[in-house]
Amino acid sequence: MELTQQQHNVVSKTLKDLLVSLEQDIEEAEKSSQPVTLDQQAFGRVSRVDAIQQQQMQAAVVRRMKKRLSMVKGAIQRLGSDDFGICIQCEEPIAFDRLMIRPESLACISCAQQAE
Predict the structure, then answer these.
(1) What is the topology classification, in CATH, of domain 5-115?
(2) By CB neighbour count within 10 A (0-12 exposed, 13-18 middle, 19+ buried), where does 96 fall?
(3) Distance of CA 90 to CAs 9, 27, 68, 85, 86, Å?
(4) What pLDDT tens digit does each residue of the chain (116 aa) get?
């Protein structure tokens, strides 16, 4: 079943709110992933390695958030088109419940599960 106008409006608002939230989260996360500078006298080798690992994990989180941000921006661009909310594989409508969880989804749940 295709989205009603009301559902379309709800998904649209959800996408726009998600865009703002992701941009803020990325900005804050990037601050946390700055290069680590530790005083060798004050911190031991293990602490330095731990700090570097934390930095690398934070950088991975930033990369994932940027990828999702890109998908959200693409979904926002598709909002006005006829193919928004339509699965790119089977061309069936994507369920409203799925779009509420992942509004940037390009595939219905069945096609997404098959792709995994």
Answers:
(1) Four Helix Bundle (Hemerythrin (Met), subunit A) (1.20.120)
(2) middle
(3) 24, 36, 22, 12, 8
(4) 788 899 999 999 999 999 999 999 999 888 766 665 555 555 555 677 777 788 888 888 999 999 999 999 999 999 988 889 999 999 999 999 999 999 999 999 999 999 88
